[in-house]
Amino acid sequence: MPPKTKFSRDTIIDAAFNIAMREGIYSITIRKVAEHLGSSIAPIYVNFTDVGELIQEVVKRIFAFSDEYLLIQDTGQPFHDIGVATLRFAREYPLLFRDMVMRPNPYLQHEPNEMNGFIDRMKTDPELTDFTDEELMPILLKMRIFTLGLSVIAANGLLPEGFNDIEVMDSTSADIIAAARMRQKGERI
């Protein structure tokens, strides 16, 4: 009897990640991953107790993947870059975007460090240096809500002809920042 093929955790996660990119996160099954690897299910169960644990690792990989988008999108305007990276990810990986954002996802937990990381990036943006962390948080939240909605439209090809998603995002960003500056000065909006 030939020895069983062994696979590392990373190899198994890679296979599951590839399935998620092609078919969505909820298409990942132990059997499908085994087929992708040309193996039985046994080596997968050596590394993971169940499909939920494997999917949790795939979600971590997706976050790492989306962080790479943010690093690539480095224009010196971090606030702009966060939005553009989100839009690009949604356009290029609509299935992953849908599963991560538009469906109830028990594998996602709100990560306060993620928001704090975005705030730290925003503080390096020349246009935002005069805002405190407390003032930056609602700016980020409003832009995040808007950008996710715009990303849904872009991912589904629903943006009206003649509109550019990045230009729409930049225009809205300027409006949100201008309104925050008015609030900061005590002016009525």
Q: Strand count, sense and closure of the main sheet?
A: none
How many separate domains make up the residues?
2
Quaternary structure classification: single chain
Helical element count? 9
* Spans of at least 5 consecutive residues with low confidence: none
H/E topology pattern? HHHHHHHHH
Helix share, percent: 55-70%
The whole-angstrom Rg is 20 Å
* Mean pLDDT score: 89
Name the overall outline: elongated
For the secondary structure, the number of strands is 0
Descriptive keywords:
mainly alpha; 69% helix; 189 residues; Tetracycline Repressor, domain 2
Task: Describe what is shown at a glance.
InterPro entries: Homeodomain-like_sf (IPR009057), HTH_TetR (IPR001647), Tet_transcr_reg_TetR-rel_C_sf (IPR036271). The chain has 189 residues and is mainly alpha-helical.
